[in-house]
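Example 4.3 (complexes with small molecules)
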Amino acid sequence: MPRMPDARTPCPGAGTSAFHLRHGEVWCEAVPLRELARRFGTPLYVYSQAALAERFAVLRAAFGADAQICYAVKANPNLTLLRRLHALGTGFDLVSGGELRRLQAAGLPTARAVFAGVAKQAWEIEAAVAAGILFFVVETPAELPLLAGAAAAARRRVRVALRLNPGVAAGGHAYIRTASTDTKFGVDLGAAGAVVEAIAREPWLELCGYHVHLGSQVREVAPYAEALERVLAFVDAAPVRRDGVTCYDLGGGFGIAYGTGAPLDVHAVAAALRPALAARGWSPVLEPGRYLIGDAGVLLTEVLGEKQQPRTTFVLVDAAMNDLLRPALYQAEHPIVPVVADPAPPRPVDVVGPVCETGDFLARGRMLPPCRRGDLLAVLGAGAYGASMASTYNSRRRPAEVLVDGERVALVRRRETFAELFADEIDLHED
Ligand code: LLP
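Answer. The structure with LLP bound is encoded below.
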């Protein structure tokens, strides 16, 4: 018997073969997206287990067995995804007491979690000390007495990584760059020596490393190398800055392609950093969010119609800025493809949602074939900072979320009910 030709072809812009075309339709692993839209309705986030596993394997291969890969929960905090990531081998990067509560709700260990954040409330510090985490990332000196007090009260030694601001400009949109001088993040290298000494004076605190998150959607290797170079120069200036240090947390920020150019070459980042780290006996800690989950998710949306204005064709869809804020907030460009390929010639359109704001767009000036009501579009690379930044603006229910694993499909967040939208409001029934 001749073998059947493989019917799979790459889906342009998808960044992973988990989302691909078969017979002119987009599939996620072994499931057609059209079937998921029919079954769960739209807007709908669809995640691929295979894509998650594939990205985790790339990071593990690049950085080696001694690297702690702490998934940045903020990118997508869904409990099932956290469990799946833990099963793959990640720890977690937390930025709030709420994220800690999520780990606990998922029944996951906190021992490989790091807790960052420019400002933490007392209860958040106390909860993380009680839970027992890998280390706190401290970047605001005023937090030290709070942390030292919580550690003393719990009679637990607490490990601290000091977040430095190396003064390196890197990352995508200005709102997601964190390591240039005069952002609120990290401690300026000129002020950090005194903070190291303050940590050394605290009997319940232990300096275990340095943390340098550059920003998000970084696609070049050089800023990672430059940041480490500056940190090493800082560390070499006084022995107290080296005492007890065992790790270097390079943060996350690993950029993905979003349909243009190349993702960050994580092997090249590892190759640039590992020799210097190994020479000091330091192990790397990574905090990837987008790199793990970004390409592993798409937002499925249904076309409600088209509308022609004098100079612009609008494709009106049922997903909006409340479902995926990134285009409106950062002018982010997510590839958008018809779920069922259409050979008709494409023309430039704006893809917009029903929300009452001109800033409510998913894409502008994008080439798409004519769209009819009921057609489906897939917004690609939407797994990170999509569902996690969704809101109920315009009293819209947030999208449901499903996880595909081979042929298996699981609803991992149902669409909320309208009653739930206002369940927490206290209606005073005033006349
Ligand atoms: N570590 C720290 C300390 C962070 O602040 C962040 C992200 C990460 C790790 C993970 O970064 P990632 O690997 O995902 O780039 N909402 C924005 C991104 C904000 C990122 C905030 N911090 C967006 O949609 O592009």
